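INFO  loader      accepted 1 record
INFO  loader      residues=106
INFO  predictor   begin
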Amino acid sequence: LAAGPYAAPALVPAIRPAEGPLPGPPSLVADGRRVAFDPVAGAAVPWLWLVRKREGDSWESACLPGRLREYGTPAEVDEIIVSGVARDGREGPPARLPGPAGSGAP
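INFO  predictor   done
INFO  writer      dumping tokens
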């Protein structure tokens, strides 16, 4: 199983009933080699960050602890989408940094 469906981390489905507010869309700043993200003032602090990056037609996702505030990226990334995830598994609204190639979502 470790070489198959459980080879990469994944988000578990949200637990119902919902508990508390959703994290708001983060503020994003990129410098070519990393993207920094912070919770919006007054919004719930996320338990996890869901970071998605697009290079050409390929998407990759990473689940990061909510205490982290940046993620390293190669310079060739075309698009980055970051959203906060509440402790009960609900994903908040995303923030997007489009690259030179434009749009498309995972």
